[in-house]
Inverse folding.
């Protein structure tokens, strides 16, 4: 039995397009579940921790990175209000003590696993983010091109580095 060429080509085109589209969707889904919220969450968490640190240690906002890093790495917790849990996108977590360990490490950082390993053993590591790089920015992730401003808003910036 000979299948007409046109049908074969049609079926192939369909499969290729379908596979490509599915792959694209899967990749988009993977990115949105694994990477994008990760850094968004981290940057928002850092904003909350910074606010907490500047009140706790009575220093001007934004507090120095050292203070924030010590706070985050020590696993110290913050009581989430309905406002802060809403800001972080944590539904139903208000009134809960939450720690922000690992918030200074981006999943896109090429040394992600090494830094996580160092952090978990309380060894010094270099945070993934640029801290207070300019007058209006609290922290900037060069890997995601995402910044959290001093007022807590997130801002996408171009110039994504690999
Ligand atoms: Zn990032």
């Amino acid at each position: 039995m000979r299948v007409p060429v046109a049908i074969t080509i049609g079926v192939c085109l369909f499969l290729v397009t379908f596979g490509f589209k599915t792959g694209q969707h899967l990749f988009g889904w993977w990115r949105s579940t694994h990477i994008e919220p990760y850094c968004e969450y981290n940057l928002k968490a850092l904003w909350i921790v910074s606010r907490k640190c500047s009140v706790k240690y009575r220093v001007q906002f934004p507090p120095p990175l050292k203070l924030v890093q010590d706070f985050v790495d020590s696993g110290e917790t913050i009581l989430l209000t309905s406002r802060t849990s809403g800001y972080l996108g944590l539904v139903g977590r208000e009134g809960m003590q939450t720690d922000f360990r690992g918030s200074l490490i981006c999943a896109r950082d090429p040394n992600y696993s090494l830094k996580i390993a160092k952090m978990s053993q309380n060894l010094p590591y270099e945070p993934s983010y640029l801290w207070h790089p300019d007058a209006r920015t609290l922290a900037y992730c060069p890997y995601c091109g995402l910044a959290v401003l001093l007022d807590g808003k997130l801002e996408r910036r171009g110039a994504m580095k690999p």
